[in-house]
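Field reference: sequence -> structure
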Amino acid sequence: MKNENILILVVDDIISNRLVLSELIEVLGYQSYCCKNGEEAIEFLLKNEVSLILMDIEMPVMNGIETTIHIRKKLTGPKSKLPIIALTAHNPADFQSEFKTAGFDDLLTKPYLLQNVNNAIVKLLKDEE
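Structure field:
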């Protein structure tokens, strides 16, 4: 389900991670928009339609867990149910309970591999159809 009308929001405080993910998303045939923290992401979500979010866990201002909880509990309608993929360089087992409680739909670990990013996106976008 590749479509350039699908916008994927990348939320990560590290510019190199945002650039890598944006490039991978574009190679996969989607559009991307980047934010450097959760606060920026929420502001963007309030004004724009997004199909999926790639959310780093550790960020300043508002981290990925806080941002995902905010999206799930404070946003309304379809935006509160957007597929959100957690991004981390750490062992996912270290925050498994927070991951589930926050409402993430999936998890990708760094380094990002094209096939893993593709599989996660396709799976969650297919679930949305």
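Note: The helical segments are 15-27, 38-47, 64-74, 96-102, 114-128.
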